[in-house]
Amino acid sequence: MNRRRLLALFAVLPLGLSACGWEPLYADRETAAGMVALREIKVAPIAERVGQQLEFGLRQSLNPSGEPAKQRYVLNVALSQSLQNSGIQSQGLGTRGDLHLTASYRLVEVATNKVLQTGVIHSSDSFDIQANGYSTVVAQNDAARRDVEEIRREIVTRLTLFMQNKGMASS
Predict the structure, then answer these.
(1) Which of 12, 28, 104, 107 has its CA 20 to 30 A from that of 76?
(2) Strand locations in the chain, DSSP E?
(3) What is the b/e burial string over 84-122, where b = at least 16 CB atoms within 10 angstroms of the residue's CB?
(4) What global pTM score does this model have?
């Protein structure tokens, strides 16, 4: 008898939840237009290896499902990279390297060729310089990967806020 009541409760429970106004915690009806607009951004090719990593990350972030969308905007990004030695020993050898990555970006509307947003983002990370050259290259590449990820997140955040505000202004 108790088993039947329990099964009936589980059968009716989803119907009760559907009418209570429940919605996912991070879903926001006001941001839906901004998310659609992000898929309409084409990321222009970015030079060099770190640029390719950033380009791929931006494409994945702006359109994670890979849905086809009309390209209404173009995102142009230029990267500059500098490397400095710090922690220099008395013999003049560096023990620590500092990698600085700066991204300048521009969001352009394709139809009007109007620049909608520009920005500059800087990220820096450090790595150990080892006696083994291969270890140093791997550490430097890892620092570059971390910098690229930080810049990617910041660009996506700025574009998301811009598109959300643009969507609210046009509503």
Answers:
(1) 28
(2) 41-43, 73-88, 94-109, 114-128
(3) eeeeeeeeeebeebbbbbbbebebbeeeeeeeebeeebe
(4) 0.75
Which domains does the chain show, CATH number per domain? 30-170 (3.30.160.150)
Q: For residue 41, what are the β-bridge partners?
A: 73
Tokens of 104: 């300048």
Token couple for 133: 């050259």
Is residue 97 within 8 Å of 106, Cβ to Cβ?
A: no
Residue found under tokens 């930080």 = 150
| Confidence at residue 16, expressed as pLDDT on a 0 to 100 scale | 59
Mean pLDDT of 44-63: 95
Which residue matches tokens 């520009």? 118
